Amino acid sequence: MENIPLSDIEFIRSVEDLSHPITLPALPIPGGLLGTRRHPDLGAVEFLASDSKNLIIVATAKRVFIISPEDPAGFAQTFARATELGSITPVEPKSVYPSFVVTQAWQSGLARYLWFSALFLNLGLFIWASLIIPTTKFVMLGPQFTGSTLETVPSTQLIIFPLASLLLSVAGWVAGLYFYRWEKERVLAFIVWASSSLTSLLFLLAVLFAVSNPV
Questions:
Q1: With contact defined as beta carbons under 8 Å apart, do 48 and 98 qualify?
Q2: 207, 155 Cβ separation under 8 angstroms
Q3: Are residues 89 and 188 in the same domain?
Q4: Which of 54, 82, 86, 194 could bridge 68 with an S-S bond, Cβ 3.0-4.6 Å?
Q5: Residue where one domain finishes, among candidates 48, 82, 98
Q6: Do residues 136 and 206 share a domain?
């Protein structure tokens, strides 16, 4: 968070007015565009934004910020009116760096439990599959019917299970962080993270079923 006195602001304008497009941070996170980039005209710019669609520039004598108000036009009009009226009570500059949504979620014991559950289940699945593949030539995959011939495949195809589990877990983790940004949507975040752990457990059981049936 930045408290910037009105007198310190040199100009406010949209990023679309720049002659050179601005480069977004290299590692954006859900709900946060944070970081510092260099621009040919502005020099170093610091992102304190949450949405890449409503970016505006707030330039001061010392630093240039990129923010994303919900209503950029209304924000600019409010700034113009405030500048005309002036400030009766001067505001001291203050910088408080925002906490990442990951840091906020980490403070929840339930979130940590679900994250570690998914992590250890995926690690166990990878380790187990890597131990089975060298020692087993074929495994049974696919539906089997009474009286039908067992359909077997090379055991190397077991790697599909940990890869699919990891992909779904990462997608679920990111989706959960997206929902966690809002207080009223955090229940959905916990549901998504719990579903990721349950999915990894199901993949683990699928591998157990594949190797427990004699080929």
A1: yes
A2: no
A3: no
A4: 54
A5: 98
A6: yes
pTM of the entire structure? 0.55
**pLDDT for 31 beyond 70:** no
Cα gap 154→178, rounded to integer Å = 39
Q: What are phi and psi for residue 5, nearest 5 degrees?
A: -60, 145
> Which one is predicted more confidently, 20 or 7?
20
Distances (CA, A) of 209 to 61, 101, 103, 134, 202: 66, 38, 38, 18, 10
Average pLDDT for the chain: 80
**Across the strands, what pairs with 37?**
45
pLDDT over 70 (residue 59):
yes
147-206 confidence digits (pLDDT tens): 556 677 787 888 888 999 999 999 999 889 888 878 888 899 999 999 999 999 999 988
Residues 63 and 112 in one domain: no
User: Over 70: is that where the pLDDT of 17 sits?
Assistant: yes
Residues 89, 147 within the same domain: no
Count of all residues that appear for the chain in the document:
215
